[in-house]
Design brief:
Layout lengths: L3 H54 L18 E6 L9 H10 L5 E6 L1 H9 L4 E5 L7 H17 L4 E9 L5 E9 L4 H11 L19 H75 L1
Parallel strand pairs: 1-2, 1-4, 2-3
Antiparallel strand pairs: 4-5
Length: 291
Amino acid sequence: MASTRDIRRRIKSVKNTRQITKAMELVAASKMKKAQQAALAGRPYSQLMSRMLAALSTRVEESQHPFLVTREVRTRGILVISTDKGLCGPLNSNVFKLVAEVKTPAKFVAVGRKGAQYLARTKRDLVADFPVSDRVAFSEIRVAVEYMVKLYLEGTIDTIEVIYSRFRNTLVQEAMVRPILPLGNLRSFIDTARTSAGAEGEVFADNRDMLFEPDAQTVLEALLPFYVNRYVYQLALSAKASEHSARMVAMKTAKDNATKLLGDLTLEYNKARQAAITQEILEIAAASFAA
């Protein structure tokens, strides 16, 4: 049995750890609430953009815009959205499992320090990495997306895909691969975007007479690049909400485990102290009888 001094040292260490994890849980809970609000606040805008594209898609012929033209895939372009810090459970490892499943030639762009470190450590073709703050500004995501779009238009990559953690609820975050470009069938893409924006079951068809200036085709071609930026931005907001939710759950689990361990150590300390007291009494009694 360990000495009472060693047990007291462990109890003090566990108490400090529990205090730290409790503080981190509270911080993560506060950030999670803000991230969830940001993700939910962006959905109406994304849904409105989807309605605009849906209205345009029924009024234009098949466009030859580079975003819509499907071509042979020689090199995939993959944007990996991860976290800057750890202590968020299996969130990053689930994303990296999807990265590990990529066996075809691909070039990677990382958002988040953990993703950049993983791609570099596994010797994958990392062409760029971008930092993103906790509040996930649109300008930060736009830089990364526009860089990938530039590679796509130059022919360096033939697809743009996003691997990220989709936020479902506080306890469930799902690692997913979301194809972005080429859009191919515009109507199918609108249905997919509508689902990811949380608008399942809504009807986006609009049969009203509309006048587009200068014309529907020009408006569509101007709207597509901005919509792609906004769509990826919404995915990044979902990933950030997933990060803070996973961290809050991980810290709560660590705090609960520390509390349980603290109870076990306290019981062990009391047993050790009782054994020491009993031993002292026996020694005193034996000495009195000897005298």
